[in-house]
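Q: I'm writing up a methods section and want to include an example of the input and output format. Could you take the sequence below and give the corresponding predicted structure tokens, formatted cleanly so I can copy it straight into the document?
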Amino acid sequence: MPSLAALVAAAKAPDHPLAFINSGGYANSGNLLPVTRLTSVAAFQKIASPNLIDVTKPEGPFYHHPDTAARIATVQAERLTDYVAAEHLPRIKRAANQLFIARNNMDTLSTVALPTLVTLPGSLANSDLQRMMQQTQLSLAAFQAGLAVSANIEIGGFDTHASHDTAQVRQLAKLLYGVHYVLEQAIEFGLLDKIVIVVGSDFGRGNGYNGPLPTDGKDHWPVSSMMVLSGDGGVVGGDRVISATTEDKQLPKYVDPATLDVLEDDTGLQIKFKHIHKAFRKFTGVAGTPVDTKFPLLAEDLPIFG
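A: Here is the clean output for your methods example:
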């Protein structure tokens, strides 16, 4: 199944090479569109301006004279066109066409106004938080230029089978600061009311420690949580919590499928990832499109977004 970000990009701008930017995490596209795998602004600059020896100096020097670089690009395009015409396997033809589209958009990529890379002080330099913040800069610059629809931004370090209490607090602090940075940068780019931020994980941590020592950890747990926020209060309302877990066993409680009120018995249903994913498809306008029907979800419709 494609990731949500891939589905949204495929429904909105399937032919654009930067529609879906992935900087980590789940990136399966279901072969709906190419995935732009970029982890830093520096990597983006090198791809956008391949003829520059130093991407920080747009005036040059160059690897090739601009006229020579143009002739090389023309020959590349002609060779790729001949290759596609002679190929019969659909997967190879599709991949070659994606390469053709990507190469034709090189001039567009070079017009993206990228900010100065953020650099954190001390031990945070070159850390997972700094990378997350740089991924934010790249994604928002691509959004502002109208080149991207969705992006995955990642921070890891939560697989705390040891030293859980220390590592989880540290990583949660980084994550929340990173989300705050996304909002700050969205204001700078003038995009605060145009983006929706989804924060989540593939699973949670167990309801007990895996040993008796203070340095012990918590193992995988199939119950997790998510957070959704937007700069536009009319898009995602604040101060709302859906569902809950039991205090003793940390298991999901049941909810009324019509109102999402938490129930104290098992007469309703437990919210699962399939319900949330289906609600996101409707919320983002993916529901009912060809990419939605190609990957159907067997789940009840829940009013998660109203």
